[in-house]
Structures are given as C-alpha cells and as structure tokens.
Amino acid sequence: MQITDANQLLELEENEFVGELPKLTNSQINFAGKNNILICEEGVHLWNSRIDFNLDNSVLYLSSNIHDYSVNIALHKKSVCFIGKNNFFNGRTSLVLSESKNIILGDECFISYNVIFRTSDGHPIYHTDAKDRLNHAGSIYVGDHVWFGQNAMVFKNSRIGSGSIIGAGSVVSNKTVRSNTTHAGAPLRIIHEDTFWTPHSTHGWGEEEIEMMEKSDSDLFVYEPDEDTLDFDEIEKTLNGFSSPDDVIVYLTALLFTGKNRFCVK
Question: Any idea what the Cα angle at residue 196 is, between residues 229 and 179, rounded to 5°?
Fold first, then answer.
C-alpha cells in the first residue's frame, strides 16, 4: 500500500499505525510487507521523504521534531529503527536496515548533506577456501547530540557515543566512537579527544561574534557515565529477543527515555 495522504494510515489492514498522524510534503510511505508498525509522535513532518517497509515485522519510531524529517528509510525483515527527538537533517539522510539489524539514533543530532546509515553490505562475501562468510551485518547505535559532517557514511557494527563529531567524508564501520571525541577519515581515526560542540551556526559570524564565542564555559554537552547510562550491546540483545513488534514499542518507550548520559560511551 502506498501512502501519500496521512489519513490513509488509518486504513491499514495488515500493518499498524500508532500515534499522531504525520504531515507529508512530497513524501510517501510504502507498505509491501505485513505486521509492520509505524509510530509517530506529535509534530512529525516528513518533507521530501520516502519510507519503505519492504518485508515483515519491522518497527519504525519517529519522535517529535521541531525540524522537518528529510529521510529515505528502507526497512526489511524484523528491524527496529528508532529516531529520537529534534534531529536536524540538512538534506536527505538515508537509512537502510537489512538482515534483521537495528538503527537507534538519539536526540538532537545534526546530520549534514548525503549522510548514509547501512546495517549490511547488501551482498554476502565468502572466503575462497574456507567458504565462510566474511561480512556479517550489524546494528548501528548513535547517541545524543552527535554531529555528522557532509557525505559521512556509517556502516555495520558502529557505536557512536553522545557528544561526538564525525567529520565530513568519514567512513565509520565496526567502530566504537567514545563520547566527546572528534573522528574523521576513511579509515576513521581520532582527531581530538575531550571535545564538545554547540548548535550555534557560524555562517553569519563577523569579528564581534567570533570574539564573543572564542570560549564556552558550558558543560551542557559534556557526557559522563552515570546510573542512567545504557549498554548498547544489552539493548541489542533485548531487541533481538522480542518475537512481537508490540513488545518492541513497550521496550523503547520504557527504556530509551532516560537521562542525559543514557548513551554515553567512555
């Protein structure tokens, strides 16, 4: 079923919609499978976006957002995609969930042009002698307040802690990025430790603004582990253990809405 008018979500038969109807602008949601669930909080505006439920038993959770969603999301079989609150998509972001793996994206991330998230290479690769597969899929976990530069690519088994920076053109694959660090490159390498960034836009700054912002004494975007900090591997284990998409929704709602340091990685 192809959805171009949000009211059509109320007519789903083999799939389910939960929450507040989103606003759709030049956007479509396609259901090719069954037993999928789309959850939208209040204030979801899909702009120039496309969402495809290509197979069965997947869950997509779109949190409220003061910005527009500009995304291409493709879910295949039994995947969970959770997008937190107030993420800024500067251009269309692609998320491809394959091989029953998941993508969790925290709150208030800044995602520049042409950023891609993929849980699988899309085709299996084997060793010529042993015949064993070499490129298994893996889920992607991203914390809160992460800045992705233009053309960054985030691939399988990536764990990116809150407050970190991924530079333009970087490739993240099978990597753990600690909170409040800056990484860049292909292959990825650490550029700075003990860094934080703020949401201020520097585009219109002149000498006065540059001088005024030369120093920041705020600890708002500095993350430290505490009693609220979650373990990405434990989240993955729990999500993979559910047999029903309804159980996934209960878990996301109960567990992921915790404190500032929920996705701190040290």
Answer: 30
Which domains does the chain show, CATH number per domain? Answer: 2-123+134-197+218-255 (2.160.10.10)
Edge-to-edge strand list for the sheet holding 171-172: 2-3, 28-31, 50-53, 71-75, 93-97, 116-118, 153-154, 171-172
- Phi–psi pair at 89, nearest 5 degrees: -100, 105
Residue with tokens 């912002």: 213
Report d(CA 100, CA 138) in Å as an integer.
9
Q: What is the pTM of this model?
A: 0.96
Burial class from Cβ neighbours inside 10 Å (0-12, 13-18, 19+) for residue 121 reads middle
Q: Which of 85, 100, 48 is nearest to 239 (CA)?
A: 100
For the chain, which residues score pLDDT lower than 50?
none
pLDDT at 32: 96
